[in-house]
Design brief:
Layout (H helix, E strand, L loop, with lengths): L3 H5 L4 E2 L2 E2 L6 H9 L15 H58 L1
Antiparallel strand pairs: 1-2
Helix pairs in contact: 2-3
């Protein structure tokens, strides 16, 4: 049985220089999502740490942008909801005032 170190780190050379890291299934998905490799089949058995750092940096950037987008969208939608509630309350208040005014006119 191989230790974790010997399973994940090797000495073979790959496409991007010194390839000494064996990517896990998650790492392979990250390499594919970040478009470092065009397909999952293109990913070699060993990749360099430099490539993994690059993929992780791209994933962090994507995650940060996605988080900002979600927060901004939620903020805008909350503001729209507050405005709708405010307008509904103002509309109801003006209708009540109009009813009171008309009832005074009739009296």
């Amino acid at each position: 049985m191989l230790s974790t170190w010997s399973r994940n780190f090797g000495t073979s050379k790959g496409l991007h220089g010194s390839a000494n890291f064996r990517p896990t299934k998650w790492d392979r998905a990250v390499l594919w999502w970040t478009r470092i490799y065009k397909s999952r089949k293109d990913i070699p058995e060993f990749v360099s740490k430099k490539v993994m750092y690059k993929a992780n940096a791209r994933l962090r950037m994507f995650g940060t942008c996605a988080a900002f987008t979600l927060v901004f969208t939620a903020w805008i939608e909350k503001d729209k909801w507050v405005d709708r509630q405010r307008m509904t309350a103002l509309r109801e208040k003006s209708q009540e005032e109009e009813k009171k005014f008309r009832s005074r006119e009739r009296s």
